[in-house]
Amino acid sequence: MRQINRLVYFYLNDNFWFVTLCNRIRGHQPPAPKKEKQVVCIGLSGSGKSTALALIAGEPIKEIQSTNGFHVKDVILSDCILNVKEIGGSEKIRKYWRHYYGGAQGVIFMVDGTTNEQELETARVAMFDALKDPQLCDLPILLLVTHQDMENARSASEVAELWNVREFYEDSVMEYGSSIKNIEQLKEAFSAFASILLHGVVGPTNVNVDI
Ligand SMILES: Nc1nc2c(ncn2[C@@H]2O[C@H](COP(=O)(O)OP(=O)(O)O)[C@@H](O)[C@H]2O)c(=O)[nH]1
Ligand SMILES: [Mg+2]
């Protein structure tokens, strides 16, 4: 009887370690958790923040309400998760934006490419003011120019040039166009930005977004 007990004991223990070892060798260990990055997403009301974030998160965009205060969305990419905090963009809320910047590792600023000159200037001032804040001033910036499906929309490079962003933010800023009609464009922008946040360069590692 003792002999049998000993055999069972050795079978269970040895087998456990053997199976674990085999799984490790065959690469069956549990995947490492994805890195997470904290991002703030700002821009005037109606610039398309909630819509773009819903699209990239694979959610329906039909019933989006205007954002009061803030809300957070997880954007899951191939090798990281962006915890994106969208802050409402009305004039009333803009005064309080800085209270929501804590812990940010990157900034997304959205502007509607079809907006008139006056609104565009309001957006520029809002972005430049926000980026003066010590919590944001050294972070990578994604300038996303939305509504690219509209004929009269300014392109991302037009806005970047008009705002002289390269002179102020040098290599910290990347500009992309986006539209509700082109999810690929949005994926490309988020992938490139995530790559900068993770590796400091736009690399090939996370071009595939799992949505
Ligand atoms: N045609 C078009 N409409 C857009 C685009 N992005 C957002 N919108 C619309 O713009 C309006 C405001 O969008 P919303 O995401 O609520 O803006 P937010 O206030 O910045 O969050 C909504 O009616 C959206 O459907 C876009 O790329 N193209
Ligand atoms: Mg919103």
UniProtKB/TrEMBL annotation:
<keyword id="KW-0342">GTP-binding</keyword>
<protein>
    <submittedName>
        <fullName>ARL15</fullName>
    </submittedName>
</protein>
<dbReference type="GO" id="GO:0046872">
    <property type="term" value="F:metal ion binding"/>
</dbReference>
<feature type="binding site">
    <location>
        <begin position="43"/>
        <end position="50"/>
    </location>
    <ligand>
        <name>GTP</name>
    </ligand>
</feature>
<keyword id="KW-0479">Metal-binding</keyword>
<dbReference type="InterPro" id="IPR027417">
    <property type="entry name" value="P-loop_NTPase"/>
</dbReference>
<dbReference type="GO" id="GO:0005525">
    <property type="term" value="F:GTP binding"/>
</dbReference>
<dbReference type="GO" id="GO:0003924">
    <property type="term" value="F:GTPase activity"/>
</dbReference>
<dbReference type="Pfam" id="PF00025">
    <property type="entry name" value="Arf"/>
</dbReference>
<feature type="binding site">
    <location>
        <position position="67"/>
    </location>
    <ligand>
        <name>Mg(2+)</name>
    </ligand>
</feature>
<dbReference type="InterPro" id="IPR042292">
    <property type="entry name" value="ARL15"/>
</dbReference>
<keyword id="KW-0460">Magnesium</keyword>
<feature type="binding site">
    <location>
        <position position="50"/>
    </location>
    <ligand>
        <name>Mg(2+)</name>
    </ligand>
</feature>
<dbReference type="InterPro" id="IPR006689">
    <property type="entry name" value="Small_GTPase_ARF/SAR"/>
</dbReference>
<feature type="binding site">
    <location>
        <position position="89"/>
    </location>
    <ligand>
        <name>GTP</name>
    </ligand>
</feature>
<keyword id="KW-0547">Nucleotide-binding</keyword>
